Amino acid sequence: MLWLSILLTILIIFTIVFLIFLYRKKKCAESEIGICTKLKFKGKHIRLKRFFAILLIILIGAWIFLGSGYIANHIAYIRPVSGYWEWQESNGQKYLYVEADNSYDLGYHTGVAMASDIVKMKLVLNGFALFMGSNIWEIEQVSSQYIKYIPECYIQELQGMADGASFSSRTWISFTDTLVQAVFIEAMYGVILPRQEYLSRLHELGCTDFGAVNNNGSITIGQTWDFSILFSWTHQFVLHKLPGKPLVFTYRMGACPALPLGKNEYGLTLVMNLVMTNAIAPIMTPTFVHIREGLENNVTAEDLCKTLLPDNKSSYSHNFLMADNDTLIAVQCLPENATKKVNPPIIVQSNTYSDLYWQQYLVHPEYSKQRQQYAEIQISSNYTDGDLTEQELLTIMGDSPIICRPYQGLTESFTIAFMTKTHFGINGK
User: Distance between CA 373 and CA 350 in Å, rounded?
Assistant: First the structure.
């Protein structure tokens, strides 16, 4: 409640000022030191003395104002919520566990735990938008168009995250902030960038995913996630539980309820890479909604594929790779079209398309082709016996510098996360 935070801030400021006034009235008749000092400027450097006196008054006023707002915001966003959150660890990797009885409470706990990531994401998106030739107001305007396609439960979760982050960070995070963070990939890569007249400045991504159907029928699947170092300040893996739903494990940036890197307790696993195209996507249900609904309700890869791509449409250009315990599905997606392969023996997908006809939509047709070929050679050389083990996959994904890309600068993509069926990590760990 912003209005309550503002009201409390004003009340606290007036209380502090009133207490200072009472103190001065009581003490200053007896003394002229400390807070009772009268501002009399004599001698040398009068102007300099006045300057520092005014500066000190401004600093004290700012401290009172900001401190009051800090306290008020914390009080205003206290909520009685069900469930709990805690940081847990698996094989040396930290992740957030969240459990709640409803979507708002789930979002609130997530916002409290990930408050610093959400605040940093707000700042990062401002800079990222400018670098990409846009601005945060344009992203907000496009993002608002997705609201009517988002089910109420996720609206409540986003509001919960805004309130929880406001409480924990003591700064104001609005619903608009969490909405933008939830759909920034749709807004930027699905709408804003494809409609620009020039695309040469585009931030080039580098995700590479792998899949294999082994001799015993088992599936090996995983990917590296490459993005700007700016986003490595904002991300976590989150395991959450809602009543009547399976455990769902997803990769998050800021307040996004799910990026296309996750799995559920049934063994259903999803990985993805973005493709930079000039195809403008329709305003539709955001991908995070399909991911959450799929991982919370589906058991098979076939059902997840149907959930992710209703009417063969997508909110931005990308490739999906998904698997259950015995089926592997690879999907390449344009906003208005998709092609599917079921149970290919081995598959590699990167930030490009294998379909020759679709090359016309690529912003940079040669981008990722070398990495694609290199990754195909790596997976083929490890699959000669008809099996790709988890350890072999991890070795391929750790291959530097082509697949596991090192940090090369603020604006360059590098590997900030990875996930397989049984392993995950962030920031090169």
Answer: 10
- In 3-state terms, what secondary structure has residue 313? coil
Higher pLDDT pick, 178 / 12: 178
Give percent above pLDDT 90 in the chain.
69
Query: In the numeric block, which tokens belong to residue 102?
Result: 């409803």
- DSSP sequence for 342-372: ES-SEEEE-SS-S-SGGGGGBSSTTTTHHHH
Contact 421, 263 (CB under 8 A): yes
Q: Do 121 and 254 form a contact (C-beta atoms < 8 A)?
A: yes
DSSP 231-290: GGGSEEEEEEE-TTS--EEEEEETT-S--S-EEETTS-EEEEEE--BSPPPPS-S-HHHH
Structure-block tokens of residue 352:
């490009």
Taking CA atoms, 164 is separated from 66, 80, 157, 175, in Å, by 20, 11, 10, 11
CB burial of 251-265 (b: ≥16 within 10 Å; e: otherwise) equals: bbbbbbbbbbbbbbe
Distance CA 223, CA 207 (A): 7
Nearest to 315 by CA among 95, 120, 146: 146
Q: Tell me the pairing of strands 346-349 and 424-426.
A: unpaired
d(CA 253, CA 266): 24
Q: What is the average per-residue pLDDT within 37-60?
A: 65
pTM score = 0.87
Nearest to 272 by CA among 418, 90, 118, 96: 418
Reported as a pLDDT band with limits 50, 70 and 90, residue 176 is very high
| Of the candidates 261, 260, 271, 274, the residue with the CA atom closest to the CA atom of residue 351 | 274
